[in-house]
């Protein structure tokens, strides 16, 4: 692994310039289980439902993840859900991460417990996360920020934290690097109160 890769929030001089994520589409199991997990448990509104344009025998479900960004699923009622962990390979999805407001983090844990969805909780240094699985074994991360980071400055904050981490000689970005990045960029440092949790590093 090379250490001379430039880390910056500046856009590269590339021939294509994207404007954001439109949607991510996954192959799901059946409609009932998919709606039960993503709408009824995670609270994503089902905003569009229509036949799959490439395969009319399956249905295409569109969910709003909470900020207008969309996740979609191709589903079919003849597919059974399988909650066993997925095997990872090159090109596969390792996990999906969705944002949770810090004020609702504990409430989110309680909701998972009430629904009997097991989870792991980790303090990842610059954010705090719950990891669970959906009805098809896909790892779902529910992540919350430790500090108030403006959405339009997120890349800049992370790139600055990366530089501070490297200067510090730390293996991973830590809370102090994110806090230092906010201070250096002249942004308000507002830390949220979150439960103590292990780092999970090396798991």
UniProtKB/TrEMBL annotation:
GO terms for molecular function: lyase activity. Pfam families: Glyoxalase (PF00903). Signal peptide: none annotated. InterPro entries: Extradiol_RC_dioxygenase, Glyas_Bleomycin-R_OHBP_Dase, Glyas_Fos-R_dOase_dom, VOC_core. Residues 20-145 form the VOC domain. Keywords: Lyase. The keyword Nucleus does not apply. The keyword Metal-binding does not apply. This is Lactoylglutathione lyase. It comes from Natronococcus pandeyae. The lineage of its organism: Archaea, Methanobacteriati, Methanobacteriota, Stenosarchaea group, Halobacteria.
